[in-house]
Amino acid sequence: MTRPKLIELVLKNLFSKPATVQFPYQKTDVEPDYRGIQYADLTKCTGCSLCAIECPAEAIKMIQIPPGYEGVNPLNKRMIYPLIDYGKCVYCYRCVKICPVNAFITTNKYDIAGASRPTSEELSLSTLKKVS
Ligand code: SF4
Ligand code: SF4
After folding, report:
1. Of the residues 35, 37, 55, 120, which should be mutated to test ligand 2's pocket, given the most ligand atoms within 8 Å of the CB?
2. Has this prediction a pTM greater than 0.90?
3. Which residue of 20, 62, 93, 128 has the lowest C-beta tally within 10 Å?
């Protein structure tokens, strides 16, 4: 590269907008159909465990619904639900597609970093009514 060309390039880059984004201070655009975190609606979930069995990343663990919640699907006799470990999930949405009762709620949320390991616990339990 000739010297004038090099100077031109340096000046151009010096005054152009940076290509990088200052995430998380600056949010990035996300497509509405982006595969973000998903969670089970416990008013629909029957506790069949199919999603946990089929998950290729072993990111789903079936756990007990804690006491003090109303609105659980009456077919969910064992009172269990799929807890998703978002740190293990590869967002293939196999669980979403395979669920026989379409219990999964999908989102385009991806910003889940935090102090504790993110799971679907809070979101799934929020689909029920807390009574105590
Ligand atoms: S496949 Fe659907 S109904 Fe079965 S445990 Fe998973 S979310 Fe619940
Ligand atoms: S999206 Fe895929 S990896 Fe994530 S919990 Fe569902 S089946 Fe498992």
Report:
1. 55
2. no
3. 20
